[in-house]
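Chain and conformation:
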Amino acid sequence: MTIEELRKLIAAGEGGMVEVKETTGQRVEACRTLCAFLNGNGGTVVFGVTRNGKLTGQLVSDETKQNLARAFLDLEPGTEIGVEYVDINATHKAIVCTVEQGARRPYVYDGRPYKRVESSTVKMPQEEYEALLSARKGFVSDWDFSPGRDLTMEDLDTEEVVRTARIAVAAGRLDPSADLSDVPSLLRKLHLMKGGRLLNGAAVLFGKDFTFYPQCHMKLAWFRGTTKMEFLDTGSVHGNVFGLFDAAMTFLFKHLNMSATTSGKMERDEKLELPPDALREAVINALAHRSYTQSGGAVTIAVYDDRVEITNPGMFPPEIDMATVMDGNEHESLPRNERIADVLYMRKTIEAWGRGMRLIHHSCADAGVPPPVFTCDGHFVKATFARPSPTIHKNPTIQKNPTIQKAPTIQKAPTIQKAPTIQKTPTIQKTPTEGESQKGRGKAFEGVTTEAVIDVIRAKNTLSMKEMASILGMSEVGIKYQITLLSRRGRIRRVGGRKNGHWEETGYASPQLSESVDSGRTKEEDEDETSNKTALKTALTLHEGTDTEEIETIKTALTTALITALMPKTDKVVVRMAKIVQLVLRDKSETALSLARFLGVSLRTIGVDLALLKKIRVLNRIGPDNGGEWAVLRKW
């Protein structure tokens, strides 16, 4: 486009097919308009024009181009946008972005559809959006069949691919002749590679880098009361389907109540207030059937005092009656993402087609709780579980003072919660310090405080983030959060590169965020902290010791036992279970509390792991938790 043609275009003024912006700082509004043009008859957006129509241009750097390209990524389905740079003078350029009428309407930007009305861009009404969607291809999406954007084998968790294939072969759902050492061959057998290119479904199922897959996202929140006015715990996780599923179930087990009965037996039977199988099925449905074409949306898990809500972007298939869903009857299977759903079926994550709702209803009936209520507003599907024993918070105003509020990592039986100033948590660091305010972004991630990270760095400052995550029993996402927090507050800095560098404690903490040395803790709390630091040193010793071969042997045996019992778990969970077995082999008097402290995880997490080890007949407890001992039922 010449400058004369551009001046003529601008002189005609804004309208149904033309909009102008002063700079690319307004790129979000511009992308909404491009979305509207794609849903209409096409159009042009020009950057570098003032409100009164004067053509001034703007400075254009590589960063300007990258920011614009990143903004275009939130337009779905992906489409070509013509971009031209027209010289206005020696330093400034106008940026002209043009689109034709989209061939795959409706288009959305950041998860929302837009349309053009005269010279204004407005949100598209739901009825119009659904009509365009139905006209395009109906309910089923082909996004997971499409080639991934610059997706390579290095972007995938190959161990997860092999694990999936192994489970599928054992279940008779994959050809037993599959070569488990040839990952590209396995991906072809799983129909996640075509013509030498990896498909989007491979990123969702097995991805590690989600730069171009913002939809692989989950938001987690635990709210006080029955509204979103105040949260007690929150998290944001990017990951593949299996990682997001683990994050969701861990969060639910962490914040839902547990009840225990003995029924005349020596051991207690612990029971979650909502049936885990029903929650599991609802989470899997949300991940498997969400709309992945909407890059701006996220699956959300929200825990309130009276209910649990599991929400995903998308809608119910128009062929399925909502009454059928609510009644828990079997229905025809209409997966939105056929390739993703098929791999989940092969891995036994989905047991049978079209039976998910029935399984949820049966699990709820067996547990004596009402089934969830499903709703759909055309953009999101929500499953709402009513909690049978609403949580009661005592002293609700205590949240006003985040310096005396303990981290709510343990939520026991459904009794009145005591004032949290004396609550103790069996994590590797007892006292909530920086980053643990209950009301904001500083909430410590995964129950591990910044001080625990500082202790690890003091012990050995050359550890990688992955190694620190292993020692503290948390995810790499969590350790990155804590490292970022400490760096921003001036507590630590990185000296040297990623491979040969090290962490250095600066000895400085922001006065607004640091705590007094005299924190007012009791003698018992100080003794517990000393015990935790001793456990941390032991964990570091174990990390650098010669026990890797033993751990691998136990891990392999556990993986086989879990698959045989049709209860496959992620590699992180199996490794933690293997460490538990190793510790018990060394000292059969270990208690659940000592194991939790040693591994740096919550008591509830250890309880779940021990229950699973009992179920697959690896361990058995003889006598009470204090004074009894473990019996190891297998030889390693």
Notes: The chain has 20 helices and 22 strands. The two ends are 73 Å apart (CA to CA). The CA atoms of residues 458 and 505 lie 8 Å apart. Confidence is low (pLDDT under 50) at residues 394-448, 508-522, 542-546.
